[in-house]
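Weekly modeling sync, notes
Attendees: S.R. (lead), two postdocs, one rotation student

Agenda item 3: backlog of single-chain predictions. S.R. asked that every request posted to the team notebook include the full sequence so nobody has to chase files. The rotation student volunteered to paste the first one in as an example of the format we agreed on. Action items at the bottom.

Example entry:
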Amino acid sequence: MRNQTFYARALLTLCFTLVGFAVMGYHPGLEDDGVYLAAVKARLDPTLFPHNAAFFELQTQATVFDSCLAGFVRAAHMPLAWAELFWQLACLFAILFACQSIARRLFASFAAVWAGVALVAAMFTLPVAGTALYLADQHLHPRNAAAALILLAVSRILARRRRQAVPLLLAAALVHPLMAALGISFCALLTLALLDPVHACVLSLRARVLSLIDRPLAVSRGLERGKAAALLPLAWLLQPANPAWLKALNTRIYCHLSQWTWYEWLGALAPLALFWLLWRVAERRGEKSLARFALAVFAYGVLQQAVAVALLTPARWARLMPLQPMRYLQLVYFFLALVAGGLAGRFLLRGPSVRATVSRWAVFLVLINGVMLVGQLTSFRGSPHFELPGVRPANPWLQAFAWIGANTPREAYFVLDPQYLRAPGEDYHGFRALARRSSLADEVKDAGVAMQVPELAPVWARQVAAEQGWSRFTLADFERLKAEFGVDWALVAYPQPAGLDCVWHNRALAVCRIP
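Predicted structure, as returned to the notebook:
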């Protein structure tokens, strides 16, 4: 009977996985996948990317993601494109399976559990306030795998099987160290929140704080910044950053809390207030598991928000900004969607009759999935919703990338518009990952890599500076780039600048040799 129940839950999870996948779409090579997919292809074929490989190798050196995926492709004798699709679906399934396991510990009713899972599946592409993240990416990303492992660890802790959470968190650390560190901190707080003595202590502390709200508070401001800095053992954190690295950092607004808008702050702080309210209400209703889970999420959010303000506010600690501590919100948003769906299933989706219940569920599923689907279709106007293996692309940029990968020498070194990722219809697809050829640094995605790796920033800044004025380039400019960097191919707008030897073109782009 237990096995039958497990298989039934797995089958229902698979159904929601396919629905969530259908809503979010699939876009390999998109955004960060331009880094990770290029790294995987380089492992499978070391003759690729003889130039500028540092723009994906250095960022991926802290993860085993690329080596594991390359090893799977070799072992399974499966084309990389299909392996990516398989593991994307596997990660989404693992995320939702973990969510239903968590929901079963928080809610007693079947409707609440699966409404929570349904909402998470629909909200895979929900933007996480001010962090440039979604709940899950529309392509295979180590962050998807890490999220699945962290959520599975959370489910094990709620099931009072803490030892089983340890290998899951260690695996997450191998896949995505930064996200795993956030997951480990939440799991530690959740473990404490589930202990009766700790919870009693928190209740006592809360009562004291509430009793002092109306009293005047004396605030001491006598700390001297110089003394605080003297206590810091990591002196390198206070060393001035090089100008090229600062330029790369300034391309990422989400690293600068002072530049956040009011709605981004609302998206960051409102969920914490909601979990604080849920903690109090669930506690009064005697829902022990839900109350303690809400307490853990609230404590995690407050702690990580304090850490983020401490790291991102002082300009002298700029070297810590690439840690992106506000990304703690991804986990909070997972729990927000799961709990919101569970509460909707408990209070809104139960009708006075079977027919009314079915009608409410139908409206709920159509509404949440329909809204997110429209958002995805609007975001990718130049690309199909599903970029599946073996399907010939209609996007002119993807057509050009595919032709380049099949028809140019492996040692070809390309230059293209440094802003190409933002070009209309390009939809942020990475050249290196999809064309499988080396290229000069771009001003958009490679800036993020340079931000993570300060030593790479001067290289990035020099190459991007040499590409300025791209729209006005003549043959002399391309020859200058060839003399300075060794580039011998160019992907340019069609019709091409005079003097370039172009061997292929479509309605928008031309692939040309630089004489």
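Discussion: group reviewed the output briefly. The chain has a mean pLDDT of 86.
Action items: rotation student to repeat for the remaining queue; S.R. to check formatting next week.
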